[in-house]
Amino acid sequence: MVKYKPKISNYMLKENYRKKIVINSKVLRGKPVIKGTRISVEFILELLSSGMTVKEILQEYLHLKKDEILACLAWARDSVKKEEIISPLDIFKDKKAYA
Fold it and tell me: Which CATH number fits domain 10-98: 1.20.1070.10, 1.25.40.10, 1.10.10.10, 3.90.1150.10?
């Protein structure tokens, strides 16, 4: 059995991506974007999820750098990591307790 050991960049270990991803209410209605651009984290994730590779994105958007793409992934990872899942069953139990 082969164990998968992911390559971990500095962006994944440290929170350096915060220097690359910014949120400004005047840019794309406050969506997180790559600093100095109007390219949103959401857009980069859409490209990656559609099957584009990092290399293909960099060839298409010459002004982007690999670390900015990795910063988008790190931002998304941390967003999901902080997410709290609430089961509909738990909500129903809470409502029943107040009845």
Answer: 1.10.10.10
pTM for the whole structure: 0.71
In the structure encoding, which two tokens stand for residue 44, read together?
């980069």
| 18-34 pLDDT tens trace | 889 999 999 999 999 99
Give pLDDT tens digits for 32-49.
999 999 999 999 999 999
DSSP string, the chain: -PPP-----HHHHSSGGGGTEE--TTSGGG--EETTSS-BHHHHHHHHHTT--HHHHHHHSTT--HHHHHHHHHHHHHHHHT-----HHHHHHHHHHH-
pLDDT averaged over the chain?
A: 82
Number of Cβ within 10 Å of residue 51's Cβ equals 7
- Beta strands at 21-22 and 33-34: parallel, antiparallel or unpaired: antiparallel
